[in-house]
Amino acid sequence: xxxxxxxxxxxxxxxxxxxxxxxxxxxxxxxxxxxxxxxxxxxxxxxxxxxxxxxxxxxxxxxxxxxxxxxxxxxxxxxxxxxxxxxxxxxxxxxxxxxxxxxxxxxxxxxxxxxxxxxxxxxxxxxxxxxxxxxxxxxxxxxxxxxxxxxxxxxx
Length: 156
What we know:
Radius of gyration: 15 Å
Shape: globular
CATH superfamily of the domain at 2-107: Gcn5-related N-acetyltransferase (GNAT)
Distance between the termini: 35 Å
Number of strands: 7
Structural class: alpha+beta
Strand content: 25-35%
CATH class of the domain at 2-107: Alpha Beta
């Protein structure tokens, strides 16, 4: 049974998954187009990281960053390689959307890559109702980044 918990970034498996996430981002993105958070970025008070577990096995992670009182950003979505195609990402995404609603965010946005390695992520977000949008917050890259947003409040 999968359980999703708030994480403090001290478990070695979580640290390794963050490092894998960063390595993959740099391998699959052009220079200057990686916006993935490292450990210090994930420890920012504006960021909450959750991890998914089954017994002692780390299944995946996802984070929610507060941009302002009504707008959150998805960060650090990653499924552990041994647990791909088991619904981990969808369960984590559902959890993050619920957390954003609980925080009364009106909008939830994200940035991802527009090339083939990021296609599964884009498909996941689109299935969840996210729609393409322009750069938000401090983002300006329009050559590689693909931006999505989800209105959580019908008036957003």
